[in-house]
């Protein structure tokens, strides 16, 4: 735990009693603050009471006694309209912050030079976060990993010069962290997402840009227009150096790939050239993982890891559960769990990772835009198996382009896809769960959906399991 001493002797309202909210309450109390816990749901209130925190209805509270409102990142700050607690805080002139802001303030107080690597991006941030942590640990460094992946940041040990905090951050967390200034800030990419919470792409991109704007060393992807513009604005702001990474083009003064070889041409690295080969890293398949690996390599080297140690860490990375996770084989057939692909951009990475013979299981609660953007990859798909609410919409998109089956449920899709893949003439057919949809129509979250897929595959006759990816804990 990281005790939060910056509010010692004061009263703080904490809204949202999920894991991060409860961790926030514990950290504030440990640092000497008085906590008032609140939640819109009975389950959250009960969890706070069970943990021993005072629970109040903030609608009738005296807000003049609160030094701050610590808001859970899932609570709307601005769009589609501010949550009622936000309106109440504004009316009482109470600052609104998140748990990462509390960490940043504690770091500034007790260990301002403690290494802090923060990672964001529309896609790939969890893999990159876990990869940075793995490389650092492989090199013998002490690492505290968490944030938007796994452990709440305040449940991690406190910042210290010998400990590297590697923290994934969503846009929701960034907008609640006004003093965010990591040692290394990584911005991978920006594509449309969460516009219901941010209103416009300009707002969304502006929030993402905050993570690198105040970083001592910014690392920015160069494969989309939004990030290119952010990198250019950083340069124009007279930043001493911006590390630019690209999976698509050769950067004359940055990080890029030649085939599967990773290359560094950043002046501060010296004449490094090619330093690793991703053909040896089986968990980092696909172009999107080239960008992830380049960004992770740059971050690790900035905090002192040697190139040979980075290459070794890339080779031994086990991957993440539910993210292009190879879970088993049955004869020539490979089964891949990409349940984390909850939008078309994520699924594009999965389809691009295999050259053909894909038996694609997709569907769920649809997101805006559907799968029309994936049409260039349809020739790689041998057959599609449609599940959930999105099935009728996706059927219209695939009609006359890809053979498909209206499976309805995941178990029916797995049965059909495994049977069809077994009869394929492709050298290595792939049964790929990459839904391009949220899970909420049939599953509580993508993790439960991925675990259901894993169990279905394990129940097939003749399946040999592969090593699971690391979980986000």
| Rounded average pLDDT | 94
Residue stretches low in confidence (pLDDT < 50, at least 5 long) are none
* Biggest beta-sheet profile: 7 strands, mixed
Q: Which architecture of the largest domain per CATH?
A: 3-Layer(aba) Sandwich
Top-tier CATH class of the largest domain? Alpha Beta
Report how far the terminal alpha carbons are from each other.
15 Å
State the strand order across the main sheet.
Answer: 19-18-17-20-16-15-21
Radius of gyration, in angstroms, nearest whole number: 23 Å
CATH superfamily of the largest domain: Mur-like, catalytic domain
Structural class computed from helices and strand pairing: alpha/beta
Please, how many helices? 15
Q: Determine the CATH topology of the largest domain.
A: UDP-N-acetylmuramoyl-L-alanine:D-glutamate ligase
Total count of domains: 3
Question: Which word captures the global form?
Answer: globular
Total number of β-strand segments?
21
- What would you call the quaternary organization? single chain
Secondary structure: helix percent: 25-40%
In percent, how much strand structure appears in the residues? 15-25%
3D structure, described in words:
- The chain is an alpha/beta fold and 473 residues long.
- The chain has three domains: 11-97, NAD(P)-binding Rossmann-like Domain (Rossmann fold); 101-316, Mur-like, catalytic domain (UDP-N-acetylmuramoyl-L-alanine:D-glutamate ligase, 3-Layer(aba) Sandwich), CATH 3.40.1190; 325-460, Protein-Tyrosine Phosphatase, Chain A (Alpha-Beta Complex).
- The protein is 33% helix and 21% strand.
- The chain has 15 helices and 21 strands.
- Helix 5 (125-138) crosses helix 11 (307-316), helix 8 (201-213) packs across helix 9 and helix 10 packs across helix 11 (307-316).
- The longest helix is centred in the middle third of the chain and has 16 residues, at 287-302.
- The chain is globular and about 70 Å long.
């Amino acid at each position: 735990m990281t005790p939060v001493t910056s509010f010692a002797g004061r009263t703080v309202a904490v809204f949202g009693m999920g894991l991060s909210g409860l961790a926030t309450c514990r950290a504030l109390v440990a640092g000497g603050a008085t906590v008032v816990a609140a939640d819109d749901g009975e389950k959250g209130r009960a969890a706070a009471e069970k943990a021993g925190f005072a629970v109040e209805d903030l609608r009738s509270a005296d807000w003049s006694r609160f030094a701050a409102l610590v808001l859970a990142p899932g609570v709307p700050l601005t769009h589609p309209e501010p949550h009622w607690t936000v309106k109440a805080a504004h009316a009482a002139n109470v600052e609104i912050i998140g748990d990462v802001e509390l960490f940043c303030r504690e770091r500034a107080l007790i260990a301002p030079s403690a290494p802090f690597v923060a990672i964001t991006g529309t896609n790939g941030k969890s893999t990159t976060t876990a990869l940075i942590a793995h490389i650092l640990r492989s090199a013998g460094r002490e690492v505290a990993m968490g944030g938007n992946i796994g452990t709440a940041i305040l449940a991690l040990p406190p910042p210290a010069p010998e400990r590297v905090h590697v923290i994934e951050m969503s846009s929701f967390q960034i907008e609640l962290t006004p003093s965010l200034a990591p040692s290394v800030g990584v911005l991978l990419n920006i594509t449309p997402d969460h516009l219901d919470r941010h209103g416009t792409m300009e707002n969304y991109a502006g929030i993402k840009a905050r993570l690198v704007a105040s970083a001592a060393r910014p690392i920015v992807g160069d494969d989309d227009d939004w990030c290119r513009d952010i990198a250019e604005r950083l340069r124009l702001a007279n930043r001493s150096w911006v590390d630019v990474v690209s999976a698509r083009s050769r950067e004359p003064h940055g990080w890029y790939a030649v085939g599967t070889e990773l290359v560094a041409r950043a002046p501060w690295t010296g004449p490094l050239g090619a330093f690793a080969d991703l053909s040896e890293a089986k968990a980092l398949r696909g172009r999107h993982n080239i960008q992830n690996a380049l960004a992770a390599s740059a971050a690790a080297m900035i905090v002192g890891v040697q190139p040979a140690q980075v290459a070794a860490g890339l080779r031994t990375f086990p991957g993440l559960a539910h993210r292009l996770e190879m879970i088993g084989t049955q004869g020539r057939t490979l089964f891949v769990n990409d349940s984390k692909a909850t939008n078309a951009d994520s699924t594009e990475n999965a389809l691009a990772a295999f050259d053909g013979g894909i038996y694609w299981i997709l569907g769920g609660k649809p997101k805006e835009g559907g799968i029309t953007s994936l049409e260039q990859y349809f020739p790689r798909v041998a057959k599609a198996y449609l599940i959930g609410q999105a099935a009728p919409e996706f059927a219209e998109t695939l009609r006359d382009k890809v053979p498909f089956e209206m499976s309805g449920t995941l178990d029916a899709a797995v049965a059909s896809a495994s049977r069809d893949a077994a009869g394929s003439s492709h050298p290595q057919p792939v049964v790929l769960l990459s839904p391009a949809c949220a899970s909420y129509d049939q599953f509580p979250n993508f993790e439960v959906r991925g675990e259901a897929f894993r169990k279905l595959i394990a129940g097939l006759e003749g399946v040999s399991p592969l090593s699971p990816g690391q979980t986000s804990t």
